[in-house]
Protein backbone atom coordinates (compact mmCIF):
# COMPACT_ATOMS: atom_id res chain seq x y z
CA UNK A 1 0.00 0.00 0.00
CA UNK A 2 1.02 3.58 -0.57
CA UNK A 3 -0.23 6.90 0.76
CA UNK A 4 -2.58 8.90 -1.42
CA UNK A 5 -0.99 11.92 -3.02
CA UNK A 6 -1.24 15.19 -1.08
CA UNK A 7 -2.07 18.36 -3.00
CA UNK A 8 -2.29 22.03 -2.03
CA UNK A 9 -5.05 24.38 -3.13
CA UNK A 10 -5.01 28.13 -2.61
CA UNK A 11 -8.70 28.83 -3.24
CA UNK A 12 -11.94 27.49 -4.72
CA UNK A 13 -10.72 28.05 -8.27
CA UNK A 14 -7.60 25.98 -7.63
CA UNK A 15 -9.68 23.20 -6.11
CA UNK A 16 -12.03 23.28 -9.09
CA UNK A 17 -9.11 23.01 -11.53
CA UNK A 18 -7.60 20.14 -9.57
CA UNK A 19 -10.88 18.20 -9.47
CA UNK A 20 -11.26 18.63 -13.23
CA UNK A 21 -7.71 17.53 -14.01
CA UNK A 22 -7.37 14.16 -12.28
CA UNK A 23 -9.07 10.80 -11.88
CA UNK A 24 -6.77 9.81 -9.01
CA UNK A 25 -7.47 10.23 -5.29
CA UNK A 26 -5.72 13.05 -3.46
CA UNK A 27 -5.68 14.58 0.01
CA UNK A 28 -5.88 18.29 0.85
CA UNK A 29 -4.67 19.05 4.36
CA UNK A 30 -6.59 21.70 6.28
CA UNK A 31 -9.14 22.37 3.54
CA UNK A 32 -11.84 22.90 6.20
CA UNK A 33 -9.60 24.08 9.04
CA UNK A 34 -11.68 27.26 9.44
CA UNK A 35 -15.00 25.47 9.98
CA UNK A 36 -16.70 26.20 13.34
CA UNK A 37 -17.55 22.48 13.53
CA UNK A 38 -13.87 21.57 13.24
CA UNK A 39 -13.00 24.08 15.98
CA UNK A 40 -15.72 22.71 18.26
CA UNK A 41 -14.48 19.14 17.78
CA UNK A 42 -10.90 20.12 18.57
CA UNK A 43 -12.13 21.42 21.92
CA UNK A 44 -14.07 18.23 22.73
CA UNK A 45 -16.37 15.62 21.24
CA UNK A 46 -19.22 16.77 23.48
CA UNK A 47 -18.80 20.34 22.30
CA UNK A 48 -18.98 19.12 18.70
CA UNK A 49 -22.20 17.25 19.46
CA UNK A 50 -23.60 20.34 21.14
CA UNK A 51 -22.74 22.45 18.11
CA UNK A 52 -24.41 20.00 15.73
CA UNK A 53 -27.56 19.51 17.76
CA UNK A 54 -28.11 23.29 17.93
CA UNK A 55 -28.62 23.21 14.16
CA UNK A 56 -30.78 20.04 14.06
CA UNK A 57 -34.37 20.25 12.94
CA UNK A 58 -37.08 18.73 15.09
CA UNK A 59 -37.63 15.60 13.06
CA UNK A 60 -36.79 11.91 13.44
CA UNK A 61 -33.23 10.85 12.62
CA UNK A 62 -32.44 7.26 11.60
CA UNK A 63 -29.53 5.72 13.49
CA UNK A 64 -27.72 2.41 13.04
CA UNK A 65 -26.77 0.58 16.25
CA UNK A 66 -24.17 -2.17 16.11
CA UNK A 67 -23.57 -4.71 18.86
CA UNK A 68 -20.60 -4.52 21.22
CA UNK A 69 -17.63 -6.71 20.40
CA UNK A 70 -17.57 -6.17 16.63
CA UNK A 71 -14.84 -3.50 16.62
CA UNK A 72 -17.30 -1.09 15.06
CA UNK A 73 -17.65 -3.17 11.90
CA UNK A 74 -21.06 -2.51 10.31
CA UNK A 75 -21.43 -5.64 8.24
CA UNK A 76 -23.24 -8.96 7.85
CA UNK A 77 -23.74 -11.57 10.53
CA UNK A 78 -23.25 -15.30 9.95
CA UNK A 79 -26.70 -15.54 8.33
CA UNK A 80 -25.87 -12.75 5.85
CA UNK A 81 -28.25 -10.39 7.59
CA UNK A 82 -27.08 -7.02 8.87
CA UNK A 83 -25.24 -7.14 12.18
CA UNK A 84 -26.77 -3.82 13.19
CA UNK A 85 -30.28 -2.55 13.83
CA UNK A 86 -31.84 0.77 12.95
CA UNK A 87 -33.94 3.04 15.13
CA UNK A 88 -35.41 6.52 14.89
CA UNK A 89 -35.33 9.37 17.34
CA UNK A 90 -34.52 13.01 17.91
CA UNK A 91 -30.85 13.85 17.45
CA UNK A 92 -30.50 15.12 21.03
CA UNK A 93 -31.68 11.74 22.36
CA UNK A 94 -29.30 9.85 20.07
CA UNK A 95 -26.42 12.04 21.20
CA UNK A 96 -27.37 11.38 24.83
CA UNK A 97 -26.85 7.69 24.09
CA UNK A 98 -23.35 8.50 22.80
CA UNK A 99 -22.72 10.62 25.92
CA UNK A 100 -23.86 7.82 28.22
CA UNK A 101 -21.59 5.28 26.51
CA UNK A 102 -18.54 7.54 26.28
CA UNK A 103 -15.51 5.77 27.74
CA UNK A 104 -17.23 2.40 28.13
CA UNK A 105 -15.07 -0.50 27.00
CA UNK A 106 -17.89 -2.59 25.49
CA UNK A 107 -20.24 0.02 24.10
CA UNK A 108 -22.47 -0.40 21.06
CA UNK A 109 -21.57 1.28 17.78
CA UNK A 110 -23.82 4.26 17.06
CA UNK A 111 -23.80 5.66 13.53
CA UNK A 112 -25.91 8.19 11.64
CA UNK A 113 -25.26 7.83 7.93
CA UNK A 114 -25.63 10.10 4.91
CA UNK A 115 -27.85 12.77 6.45
CA UNK A 116 -28.71 15.46 3.93
CA UNK A 117 -27.37 18.69 5.44
CA UNK A 118 -30.17 20.77 3.93
CA UNK A 119 -33.00 18.44 4.97
CA UNK A 120 -31.94 17.72 8.56
CA UNK A 121 -30.22 20.92 9.69
CA UNK A 122 -30.65 24.68 9.61
CA UNK A 123 -27.51 26.70 8.98
CA UNK A 124 -25.01 23.88 9.43
CA UNK A 125 -24.13 23.72 5.75
CA UNK A 126 -23.94 27.49 5.42
CA UNK A 127 -21.41 27.73 8.27
CA UNK A 128 -19.41 24.64 7.29
CA UNK A 129 -19.01 23.92 3.59
CA UNK A 130 -16.51 23.61 0.77
CA UNK A 131 -17.00 25.90 -2.22
CA UNK A 132 -17.35 23.55 -5.20
CA UNK A 133 -18.27 26.23 -7.70
CA UNK A 134 -21.05 25.35 -10.11
CA UNK A 135 -21.23 21.68 -9.13
CA UNK A 136 -24.70 20.60 -8.06
CA UNK A 137 -23.41 18.54 -5.15
CA UNK A 138 -25.35 16.55 -2.58
CA UNK A 139 -23.98 17.53 0.85
CA UNK A 140 -24.22 14.84 3.54
CA UNK A 141 -22.99 14.37 7.09
CA UNK A 142 -21.96 11.10 8.79
CA UNK A 143 -21.82 11.05 12.60
CA UNK A 144 -20.88 8.27 14.97
CA UNK A 145 -18.61 6.37 17.26
CA UNK A 146 -15.66 4.31 16.01
CA UNK A 147 -16.83 2.36 12.95
CA UNK A 148 -15.54 0.28 10.07
CA UNK A 149 -17.40 0.43 6.76
CA UNK A 150 -16.62 -2.30 4.22
CA UNK A 151 -15.01 -1.36 0.92
CA UNK A 152 -17.61 -0.21 -1.61
CA UNK A 153 -17.80 2.25 -4.50
CA UNK A 154 -20.14 5.03 -5.60
CA UNK A 155 -21.09 6.28 -9.04
CA UNK A 156 -20.68 10.02 -8.26
CA UNK A 157 -17.38 11.75 -7.53
CA UNK A 158 -16.88 12.29 -3.81
CA UNK A 159 -15.05 14.90 -1.75
CA UNK A 160 -15.02 13.78 1.90
CA UNK A 161 -14.01 16.08 4.76
CA UNK A 162 -13.02 14.86 8.21
CA UNK A 163 -14.68 17.41 10.49
CA UNK A 164 -14.30 15.71 13.89
CA UNK A 165 -12.15 12.78 15.00
CA UNK A 166 -9.96 10.80 12.61
CA UNK A 167 -10.75 8.92 9.40
CA UNK A 168 -8.83 6.40 7.35
CA UNK A 169 -9.75 5.73 3.73
CA UNK A 170 -8.23 2.71 2.02
CA UNK A 171 -8.78 3.18 -1.71
CA UNK A 172 -8.59 0.82 -4.68
CA UNK A 173 -8.84 1.54 -8.43
CA UNK A 174 -12.14 0.53 -10.09
CA UNK A 175 -10.63 -2.48 -11.89
CA UNK A 176 -9.71 -4.15 -8.58
CA UNK A 177 -13.31 -5.28 -7.97
CA UNK A 178 -12.52 -8.93 -8.71
CA UNK A 179 -9.81 -8.94 -6.05
CA UNK A 180 -12.08 -7.49 -3.35
CA UNK A 181 -14.50 -10.46 -3.27
CA UNK A 182 -17.75 -8.54 -3.48
CA UNK A 183 -20.89 -9.67 -1.71
CA UNK A 184 -24.48 -9.60 -2.98
CA UNK A 185 -25.67 -6.63 -5.01
CA UNK A 186 -29.28 -6.86 -3.81
CA UNK A 187 -28.63 -7.44 -0.08
CA UNK A 188 -26.21 -4.74 1.02
CA UNK A 189 -25.54 -2.69 4.16
CA UNK A 190 -26.21 0.61 2.38
CA UNK A 191 -27.21 0.04 -1.23
CA UNK A 192 -23.84 -0.84 -2.78
CA UNK A 193 -22.08 -4.20 -2.99
CA UNK A 194 -19.29 -4.44 -0.42
CA UNK A 195 -16.07 -6.39 -0.05
CA UNK A 196 -16.48 -9.51 2.07
CA UNK A 197 -12.86 -9.23 3.27
CA UNK A 198 -12.27 -8.21 6.88
CA UNK A 199 -9.52 -5.62 6.42
CA UNK A 200 -8.40 -5.98 10.04
CA UNK A 201 -7.98 -9.76 9.70
CA UNK A 202 -7.90 -10.74 6.01
CA UNK A 203 -8.23 -14.47 5.36
CA UNK A 204 -5.94 -14.96 2.39
CA UNK A 205 -6.82 -18.65 2.18
CA UNK A 206 -10.45 -17.71 1.49
CA UNK A 207 -9.59 -14.50 -0.39
CA UNK A 208 -6.16 -15.05 -2.00
CA UNK A 209 -6.58 -12.32 -4.64
CA UNK A 210 -6.93 -9.68 -1.93
CA UNK A 211 -3.14 -9.63 -1.68
CA UNK A 212 -3.08 -8.31 -5.26
CA UNK A 213 -5.67 -5.64 -4.39
CA UNK A 214 -3.45 -4.42 -1.55
CA UNK A 215 -0.60 -3.90 -4.02
CA UNK A 216 -2.76 -1.22 -5.68
CA UNK A 217 -4.23 0.29 -2.51
CA UNK A 218 -3.80 3.90 -1.43
CA UNK A 219 -4.31 5.05 2.15
CA UNK A 220 -5.52 8.48 3.27
CA UNK A 221 -5.36 9.23 6.99
CA UNK A 222 -7.37 12.35 7.77
CA UNK A 223 -7.25 14.68 10.75
CA UNK A 224 -9.89 17.35 11.49
CA UNK A 225 -10.15 19.73 8.54
CA UNK A 226 -8.49 17.38 6.04
CA UNK A 227 -10.26 16.21 2.88
CA UNK A 228 -9.87 13.35 0.41
CA UNK A 229 -11.12 13.17 -3.16
CA UNK A 230 -12.56 9.76 -4.08
CA UNK A 231 -13.10 9.59 -7.86
CA UNK A 232 -16.17 7.92 -9.30
CA UNK A 233 -16.16 4.11 -8.96
CA UNK A 234 -13.03 3.94 -6.79
CA UNK A 235 -13.47 1.40 -3.99
CA UNK A 236 -13.03 2.78 -0.49
CA UNK A 237 -12.94 1.18 2.94
CA UNK A 238 -13.72 3.84 5.56
CA UNK A 239 -12.82 3.80 9.26
CA UNK A 240 -13.80 6.25 11.97
CA UNK A 241 -10.82 5.90 14.28
CA UNK A 242 -11.69 8.20 17.18
CA UNK A 243 -14.33 7.55 19.86
CA UNK A 244 -16.47 10.19 18.09
CA UNK A 245 -16.22 11.09 14.39
CA UNK A 246 -17.97 13.42 11.95
CA UNK A 247 -17.52 13.37 8.19
CA UNK A 248 -19.05 15.80 5.69
CA UNK A 249 -19.04 14.70 2.09
CA UNK A 250 -20.11 16.03 -1.31
CA UNK A 251 -21.30 13.84 -4.17
CA UNK A 252 -21.68 15.09 -7.72
CA UNK A 253 -21.75 13.67 -11.24
CA UNK A 254 -20.67 15.30 -14.47
CA UNK A 255 -23.59 13.80 -16.39
CA UNK A 256 -27.16 15.18 -16.10
CA UNK A 257 -29.37 13.85 -13.32
CA UNK A 258 -32.01 12.78 -15.86
CA UNK A 259 -29.72 10.04 -17.18
CA UNK A 260 -30.24 6.61 -15.65
CA UNK A 261 -28.15 4.89 -13.02
CA UNK A 262 -25.69 2.30 -14.43
CA UNK A 263 -26.43 -0.01 -11.48
CA UNK A 264 -30.04 -0.25 -12.64
CA UNK A 265 -28.86 -1.30 -16.09
CA UNK A 266 -26.65 -3.98 -14.51
CA UNK A 267 -29.58 -5.32 -12.50
CA UNK A 268 -31.75 -5.39 -15.63
CA UNK A 269 -29.01 -7.20 -17.56
CA UNK A 270 -28.80 -9.84 -14.84
CA UNK A 271 -32.56 -10.29 -15.14
CA UNK A 272 -32.69 -10.48 -18.91
CA UNK A 273 -29.29 -11.60 -20.25
CA UNK A 274 -27.08 -13.38 -17.70
CA UNK A 275 -28.88 -16.74 -17.80
CA UNK A 276 -29.26 -16.98 -21.57
CA UNK A 277 -27.40 -19.76 -23.43
CA UNK A 278 -23.75 -18.84 -24.13
CA UNK A 279 -24.28 -18.33 -27.86
CA UNK A 280 -27.11 -15.89 -27.19
CA UNK A 281 -25.08 -13.99 -24.61
CA UNK A 282 -22.28 -13.61 -27.15
CA UNK A 283 -24.72 -11.96 -29.56
CA UNK A 284 -25.95 -9.56 -26.90
CA UNK A 285 -22.38 -8.77 -25.83
CA UNK A 286 -21.65 -7.69 -29.41
CA UNK A 287 -24.82 -5.58 -29.50
CA UNK A 288 -23.90 -3.86 -26.22
CA UNK A 289 -20.43 -3.13 -27.58
CA UNK A 290 -21.95 -1.71 -30.76
CA UNK A 291 -24.66 0.47 -29.22
CA UNK A 292 -23.26 1.30 -25.77
CA UNK A 293 -19.56 0.81 -25.20
CA UNK A 294 -18.18 1.67 -28.64
CA UNK A 295 -21.08 3.69 -30.08
CA UNK A 296 -19.14 5.08 -33.03
CA UNK A 297 -20.41 7.09 -35.98
CA UNK A 298 -21.09 3.88 -37.91
CA UNK A 299 -24.01 3.19 -35.57
CA UNK A 300 -26.09 6.10 -36.90
CA UNK A 301 -24.44 7.53 -40.02
CA UNK A 302 -26.68 5.54 -42.37
CA UNK A 303 -29.91 6.73 -40.67
CA UNK A 304 -31.38 10.06 -41.80
CA UNK A 305 -30.78 12.93 -39.38
CA UNK A 306 -33.77 13.59 -37.19
CA UNK A 307 -34.96 9.99 -37.55
CA UNK A 308 -32.48 8.27 -35.26
CA UNK A 309 -34.65 8.13 -32.14
CA UNK A 310 -32.80 7.26 -28.96
CA UNK A 311 -29.66 6.51 -30.95
CA UNK A 312 -29.11 10.26 -31.15
CA UNK A 313 -27.54 12.07 -28.20
CA UNK A 314 -30.05 11.82 -25.38
CA UNK A 315 -32.11 14.75 -24.17
CA UNK A 316 -34.36 14.99 -21.11
CA UNK A 317 -37.31 14.21 -23.41
CA UNK A 318 -35.79 11.15 -25.09
CA UNK A 319 -34.49 9.88 -21.74
CA UNK A 320 -38.01 10.23 -20.41
CA UNK A 321 -39.36 8.15 -23.29
CA UNK A 322 -36.87 5.37 -22.53
CA UNK A 323 -37.82 5.45 -18.86
CA UNK A 324 -41.54 5.31 -19.67
CA UNK A 325 -40.96 2.42 -22.09
CA UNK A 326 -39.00 0.47 -19.47
CA UNK A 327 -41.69 1.02 -16.86
CA UNK A 328 -44.35 -0.30 -19.23
CA UNK A 329 -42.35 -3.38 -20.18
CA UNK A 330 -41.22 -4.19 -16.62
CA UNK A 331 -44.79 -3.95 -15.33
CA UNK A 332 -46.22 -6.38 -17.88
Explain the overall architecture.
By secondary structure, the protein is of the alpha+beta class. It has two domains: about 1-250, Sandwich (Jelly Rolls); about 260-330, no CATH class. Helix content is about 30%, strand content about 25%. It is built from ten helices and 15 strands. It has helices spanning about 10-20, 35-45, 45-55, 90-100, 115-120, 125, 210-215, 260-270, 280-295, 315-330, and strands at about 1-5, 5, 25-30, 60-65, 75, 85-90, 110-115, 140-145, 145-150, 155-165, 165-170, 220, 225-230, 235-240, 245-250. The strands form two sheets. A nine-stranded mixed β-sheet has the order 2-3-13-10-15-8-7-4-6. The chain has a six-stranded mixed β-sheet with strand order 1-12-11-14-9-5. Strand 2 (about 5), helix 1 (about 10-20) and strand 3 (about 25-30) form a beta-alpha-beta unit. Helix 2 packs antiparallel against helix 3 (about 45-55).
What's the quick description here?
With 332 residues, the chain is an alpha+beta fold.
Strand percentage: 15-25%
Quaternary structure type: single chain
CATH class placement of the largest domain: Mainly Beta
Structural class: alpha+beta
SS summary, helix count: 10
CATH fold label of the largest domain: Jelly Rolls
What count of domains describes the coordinates?
A: 2
Largest sheet: 9 strands, mixed
| N- to C-terminal distance | 50 Å
In N-to-C order, the SSE pattern is: EEHEHHEEEHEHHEEEEHEEEEHHH
- Mean of residue pLDDT values: 96
Q: Give unreliable regions as ranges.
A: none
Q: Classify the helix fraction into a percent range.
A: 25-40%
The overall strand count is 15
Radius of gyration: 22 Å
| Level-2 CATH architecture of the largest domain | Sandwich
CATH homologous group name of the largest domain: Jelly Rolls
Strand line-up of the largest beta sheet: 2-3-13-10-15-8-7-4-6
- Outline type: globular
Amino acid sequence: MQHAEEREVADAAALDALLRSTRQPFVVRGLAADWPLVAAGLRSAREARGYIVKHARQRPFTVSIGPPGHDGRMFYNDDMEMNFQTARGQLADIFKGIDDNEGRQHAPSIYLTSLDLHDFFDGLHEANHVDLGERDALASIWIGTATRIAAHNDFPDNLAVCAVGRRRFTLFPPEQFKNLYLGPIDNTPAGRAVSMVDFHAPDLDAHPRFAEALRHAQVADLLPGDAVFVPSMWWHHVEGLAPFNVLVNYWWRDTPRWLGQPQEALNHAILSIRDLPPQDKAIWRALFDHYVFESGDDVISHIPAGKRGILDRLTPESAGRIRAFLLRTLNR
